[in-house]
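Renewal narrative, Specific Aim 1. Our central claim is that a sequence can be written position by position from structural information alone. The example that follows is taken directly from our test logs and has not been curated for this report. It begins with the structure tokens describing the chain, in the order in which they were read.
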């Protein structure tokens, strides 16, 4: 529901992925998989690294509410939605999006 941290998590994930692509020392896959710090005075087991086995993926922001509002059964709509995004306009011809054109 609202306020549960979904957008915050996606933003964190995107920053870590972009950082991994750019070789950033502070935001990268190590940041993404670092153990979550325990609560103060916690008697739980020591924190374990977070599981991620996919390597650095290219973060592509798609606002699902915008996508869903335009979804009229069009198969290529996701590609168009991504290509319209000013932040990733230059990626429209990259292999990532080629899969959506078939």
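The sequence written for that structure reads:
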């Amino acid at each position: 529901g609202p306020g549960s941290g979904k957008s915050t998590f996606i933003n964190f994930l995107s920053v870590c992925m972009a950082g991994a692509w750019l070789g950033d020392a502070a935001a990268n896959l190590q940041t993404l998989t670092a153990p979550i710090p325990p609560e103060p005075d916690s008697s739980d087991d020591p924190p374990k690294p977070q599981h991620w086995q996919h390597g650095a993926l290219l973060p592509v922001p798609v606002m699902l509410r915008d996508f869903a509002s335009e979804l009229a059964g069009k198969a290529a709509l996701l590609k168009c939605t991504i290509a319209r995004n000013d932040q990733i306009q230059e990626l429209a011809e990259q292999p990532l999006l080629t899969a959506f054109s078939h």
